[in-house]
Amino acid sequence: MMESLSEQIAADLLRIQAVFLRPNDPFTWASGIKSPIYCDNRLTLSDVAVREDVENGLAETIKQYYPEAEVLMGTSTAGIAHAAITATKLNLPMGYVRSGAKDHGRQNQIEGKLLPGQKVVVVEDLISTAGSCLEVVEVLREAGAEVLGIVSIFTYGMKKGLNRLAEAKVENHSLSNLDVLAEVAVKEGYISAQEKVELIQFRDNL
Predict the structure, then answer these.
(1) Model pTM?
(2) Which of 49, 88, 107, 181 is the most buried (most CB within 10 A)?
């Protein structure tokens, strides 16, 4: 039995290979970085039990940290489904923010109804350097929303991401993170204790 929600989510992500660890055969990120970890949290939508853990976790996190939330806004595209399901659980309206404004119709970047002054929580699947979710926060702030913070499924805990969030004065609460996941991965035999050390060192050196 898992001791905490963060451990449960970490175990879920490992089991369905939404977070895949390969210290001896690194993945190549789009940036060219050789990484021992690969994340695809979209896979959480395809596993019914994991999806339930994730959406319940997001809903409880919002209730705990942002009880005054009036609207949930998903990041495009990975956060949209999670925002929709979590909003349904919390009986809240939702929408999402495009990565750029449409070039047709009303040319919206924010999809869904958002009124100036409304208290918004951003729903994101993964935070690394925090660049994409902070762009969403900026769009919402420019539209007059009061952004309470971000909830996300998983974060690497990279210094660059943490610094960016702090500079923008944005709070993030993730269901799980790399430190917890590395512990669970050793406990459940996915990686060795030495590989865990190398994994954390990789993150800390980015």
Answers:
(1) 0.92
(2) 181
